[in-house]
Automatic annotation (TrEMBL):
It comes from the Bacteria. InterPro entries: DUF983. Pfam families: DUF983. The chain crosses the membrane at residues 66-90, 96-114. This is Uncharacterized conserved protein, DUF983 family. Keywords: Membrane, Transmembrane, Transmembrane helix.
Length: 146
């Protein structure tokens, strides 16, 4: 049986990866949906679905630096393991240095997305998911319009 979309409860990890508001997990955090376009860091002031403010206090976004660092470390560890398993490491050739170079390129290429992801993750540490957030706001706006 199919469930209508608004009654599904989006999971934490997919909603964070899709840069959704942590309160309702449906509204977009950022004005632009694409990470690789001009103005990619422009955030909505409030969630377009539930009205959650995206910056809950002044200079709130400083904490995203820690998340961004943790993500970079996680990707580096993952790429090291992948390289080790697929290509292998040796002290007798340059494979280790190739990995360092390619990992740097990978991190640079992912940077725009990682910056957006860090903000989404950071906000999600402070804003709890409310499964009724989306429907409540829709109900409120309907009664306000009537
Ligand atoms: Zn929301």
């Amino acid at each position: 049986m199919e469930t209508p979309k608004q009654h599904q409860h989006p999971k934490y990890i997919p909603s964070v990866l899709k840069l959704k508001c942590p309160h309702c997990r449906q509204g977009d955090m950022f004005v632009n949906r694409r990470s690789y376009s001009k103005g990619f860091m422009k955030m909505n002031d409030t969630c377009p679905v539930c009205g959650q403010p995206m910056e809950i206090e002044p200079s709130f976004c400083y904490g995203t630096g820690y998340v961004s660092y943790a993500l970079a470390v996680a990707i580096t560890v993952a790429s090291f393991i992948a390289w080790w398993v697929i290509i292998g490491m040796s002290v007798h050739d340059n494979r280790f240095f190739w990995w360092i170079g390619l990992n740097a390129v990978l991190l640079l290429a992912l940077q725009p997305y990682l910056m957006r992801l860090s903000r989404t993750v950071w906000l999600s540490f402070f804003v709890r998911y409310d499964k009724d957030a989306a429907s409540c706001n829709i109900a409120n706006s309907h009664s306000a319009a009537a």
